[in-house]
Amino acid sequence: MEPPVAELRLPDRLLMGPGPSETHPRVLDAFGTPPVGHLDPAFIDVMDDTQRLLRATLRTDNEWTIPVSGTGSASMEAAIGNLVEPGETAVVPGNGYFGDRMAEMVRRAGGTAVQVETPWGKPLDPADVRDACAEHDPAVVGVVHAETSTGVRQPEMSAITDAAHDHGAVVVADCVTSIGGVEFRMDEWGIDAAYAASQKCLSCPPGASPLSVNDRAMAKILDREESVRSWYLDLSLLDDYWGEERAYHHTAPVNNVYALREALRLVDEEGVENRWQRHEEYAEALQEGLWALGLEPVVESDVRLPSLTTARLPSGLEPGEVVATMRDDYDVEIATGLGAFADEAIRVGCMGYGAHRGPVLETLGALGETLASAGVGVEPGAGVEAAVSTLGRR
Ligand code: PLP
């Protein structure tokens, strides 16, 4: 007979990778609140609060702003799967892993994906998006505001939405790795639909993922000739639950919504702009620390994300081995590069609760020791020293 499954015991890791990030203790407490029913009037209030706080965090007035039940990919698939009708064309990014995922979702929705080919590690050029719109006449244009696979922040979001709107397309933006940590202004930038996740700069466990859709995008969805291929993610049906009626559609993951509400309350207390600023400050310290340890930036500073840094290792080092040593010897989670950078770079997050002095210095300290023990001629404390002096200059 097999022995019984042991009590759950997991290592106490510092989460400084591309997500999930460190969970805020108040968010964990909220998560542990005993569930009420998903149609209980008390939970309806929680839904209302969460929607209100989400609008403020995304900088939007969109009525249709909800947490989708599922991780960021569910919210992403809800956006793409509802907006793209079979036979339609969508112009999407070709400069990273999540642009590729967007393209795949467009195809599965029955559409044709045209990718704006741009090297990984560089942002899209709005002129290229404009050219692609002129050539392919898309119904939808996708843009990844924060590309977690490379660490690129897409600048000039308004230039991209202008190009799309001039051709009559709606714009869907991925703000999974920017929500609550990197400047993102949905309405001001003219974004028609935006999806996000909870486990990055919001420091909340994964499972309830923000989605906001404006009237223009919603009109396109309600005007579809063919039903959305996913029943679960069909926004016209989800409206029964999240709209005025508050009728059963599916059993919402109430604890995830409690947690998200608390995470958004923390954003509100700090002020979303202050939070963007905090991420900038600690990311700068982290990045200065990485360069002091001999790593090199993959992304130019003007388009480098604060929430996720991709850094080339000194030559001869295997990213997978560095990541394993950080995890096994120091209990710090970071990640290897992806795609074009898989064999040469690591990715280090600076998100939410992790975007603070302690986590940043601990990560740099562990990385310094890891590099020195791998034979790199570097002072193990150089990263911490550089970060401390960067923070001290402020
Ligand atoms: N988009 C981006 C930019 C992401 O970084 C991620 C996840 O890391 C996703 C989409 C998908 O989110 P999830 O892994 O929560 O399903």
Structure description:
With 394 residues, the protein is an alpha/beta fold. It folds into 2 domains: 25-269, 3-Layer(aba) Sandwich (Aspartate Aminotransferase, domain 2); 271-392, Aspartate Aminotransferase, domain 1 (Alpha-Beta Complex), CATH 3.90.1150. 42% of the residues lie in helices and 15% in strands. It has 13 helices and 15 strands. A hairpin with a 4-residue loop joins strand 6 (146-147) and strand 7 (152-153). The longest helix is centred in the C-terminal third of the chain and has 21 residues, at 272-292. The chain binds pyridoxal-5'-phosphate. Residues 18-19, 71-73, 76, 98, 144, 148, 174, 176-177, 197, 206 line the site of pyridoxal-5'-phosphate (PLP).
Précis, in short:
The chain has 394 residues and is of the alpha/beta class.
Summarize the helices and strands and which ones pair or pack.
Elements: E1 14-15, H1 25-31, H2 41-58, E2 64-69, H3 72-83, E3 89-94, H4 97-108, E4 112-117, H5 126-136, E5 140-144, E6 146-147, E7 152-153, H6 157-166, E8 170-174, E9 193-195, E10 208-213, H7 215-222, H8 235-242, H9 254-270, H10 272-292, E11 296-297, E12 308-312, H11 319-330, E13 332-333, E14 335-336, E15 345-349, H12 357-373, H13 382-392
Parallel strand pairs: 1-13, 3-4, 3-5, 5-8, 8-9
Antiparallel strand pairs: 2-10, 6-7, 9-10, 11-12, 12-15, 14-15
Helix pairs in contact: 1-9, 2-9, 3-4, 5-6, 9-10, 10-12, 10-13, 11-12, 12-13
The chain binds pyridoxal-5'-phosphate.
Radius of gyration, whole Å? 21 Å
**What structural class results from the helix and strand content?**
alpha/beta
What distance lies between the first and last C-alpha atoms, to the nearest angstrom?
Answer: 62 Å
In CATH, the homologous superfamily of the largest domain goes by the name Type I PLP-dependent aspartate aminotransferase-like (Major domain)
Shape: globular
Model regions low in confidence, pLDDT < 50 over at least 5 residues: none
Q: Count of DSSP E strands?
A: 15
Order of helices and strands: EHHEHEHEHEEEHEEEHHHHEEHEEEHH
At CATH level 3, the topology of the largest domain is Aspartate Aminotransferase, domain 2
- CATH domain class of the largest domain: Alpha Beta
Number of helices: 13
